[in-house]
């Protein structure tokens, strides 16, 4: 999989974001972090900065989804109870802003931590991790 996607690929970043969001559906948001880290390392082509960026993108996807912003359990139930709002209504109102925030933060991560062209041209067999 790491050999198919080019280093610095937006497809890889959004793929890791999506996987992070899937692993966040357990409600805690932290259970999938080891999986996200392993996938980021596999897709990172041995570039530490790119691996860190992919890991961060996957982590925000997992925590923002499962940590009480979209999934209707966990802290979202407590917040809805304190605010006197139905949980279902709060989930509906949170969905679009959270998704927009995830997409924007992923795009920003791609721009800020872009892998330099000189690193992409290094053969994979010569890299050390």
Molecular structure report:
This protein has 129 residues and is mostly helical. The protein has one domain (10-115). Helix content is 64%, strand content 0%. It contains six helices and no strands. The chain has helices at 10-23, 33-43, 48-66, 75-83, 87-112, 117-120. Helix 1 (10-23) runs antiparallel to helix 2. The longest helix is centred in the C-terminal third of the chain and has 26 residues, at 87-112. The protein is elongated, with a radius of gyration of 17 Å.
Cα Rg: 17 Å
Count of individual helical segments:
6
Query: How confident is the prediction overall: mean pLDDT?
Result: 80
Fraction of residues in β-strands: under 5%
Helix fraction bin: 55-70%
Summarize the structure.
The chain has 129 residues and is mainly α. It contains six helices and no strands.
């Amino acid at each position: 999989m790491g050999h198919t996607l080019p280093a610095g690929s937006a497809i890889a970043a959004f793929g890791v974001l999506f996987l992070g969001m899937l692993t966040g559906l357990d409600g805690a948001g932290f259970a999938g972090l080891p999986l996200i880290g392993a996938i980021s390392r596999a897709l990172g082509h041995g570039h530490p900065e790119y691996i860190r960026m992919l890991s961060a993108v996957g982590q925000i996807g997992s925590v923002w989804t499962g940590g009480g912003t979209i999934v209707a359990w966990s802290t979202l139930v407590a917040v809805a109870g304190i605010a006197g709002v139905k949980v279902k209504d709060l989930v509906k109102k949170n969905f679009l802003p959270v998704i927009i925030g995830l997409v924007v933060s992923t795009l920003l991560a791609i721009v800020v931590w872009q892998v330099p062209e000189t690193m992409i041209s290094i053969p994979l067999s010569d890299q050390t991790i």
